[in-house]
Amino acid sequence: MNKKALIEAALFMSTKPLSIKELTKIANSSEEEIKNILEELKKEFESPERGVHLIKMGNGYKLYVKPEYVRFVRHLTPYSDMKKGHLRVLALVAYKNGITQSEIVKVIGNRTYEYVRELIERGLIRAVKEGRTIKLLPTKEFANYFGLKTPEEAKKFFEGVINAKRNDKS
């Protein structure tokens, strides 16, 4: 089996960044071999002929559509890899352009912590400690994922999600 192709397939299918340890298990390879394969893939994806690139996020790696192509293809997978709760957290973070975790807990409930952890792992939001609380902010990857350029675009984009939730309560 072609290990490089297998690693590429794993990165393509995963909705979260994959660590070198996870990739060694998938490909039954050494860490050194996986690192070499990742370097090769990274160089290949840097080519202007490729529509995706390989990004290292924290301890993991993930394939992303290059920013210049996102707006043309984002409709093909309209956030099918996210639960409604994830989208609600993202909507609040985007709408407020930063919000405390405790404010989100008041709106969504205790599952907020699970959603926030997963969104941080995916690199879509970041947590900044402010005194005794945590402020959640959108990342550049957040903007790329949704094909947005400014906080105003993000606010407008997610108004629908927030308004839909308000209507659910009535």
Q: Major sheet, described briefly?
A: 3 strands, antiparallel
Largest beta sheet: strand ordering: 1-3-2
- Output the CATH homologous superfamily of the largest domain: Winged helix-like DNA-binding domain superfamily/Winged helix DNA-binding domain
Sum up the overall morphology in one term: globular
The CATH architecture of the largest domain can be given as Orthogonal Bundle
Q: How many E strands?
A: 6
Query: Please, how many domains?
Result: 2
Q: How far apart, in Å, are the first and last alpha carbons?
A: 55 Å
> What order do the SSEs take from the amino end to the carboxyl end, as H and E?
HEHHEEHHEHHEEHH
CATH topology descriptor of the largest domain: Arc Repressor Mutant, subunit A
- The count of helical stretches stands at 9
Gist?
With 170 residues, the protein is α+β, with helices and mostly antiparallel strands. The chain has nine helices and six strands; from the N terminus they run αβααββααβααββαα. A hairpin with a 2-residue loop joins strand 2 (52-57) and strand 3 (60-65).
Feature tags:
single chain, 170 residues, alpha+beta, Arc Repressor Mutant, subunit A, 2 domains, three-stranded antiparallel β-sheet, 9 helices, 6 strands
Topology summary:
Blueprint: H1 3-13, E1 18-19, H2 20-27, H3 31-45, E2 52-57, E3 60-65, H4 67-73, H5 84-96, E4 99-100, H6 101-108, H7 112-121, E5 125-130, E6 133-138, H8 140-146, H9 151-169
Antiparallel strand pairs: 1-3, 2-3, 4-6, 5-6
Helix pairs in contact: 1-3, 2-3, 5-7, 5-9
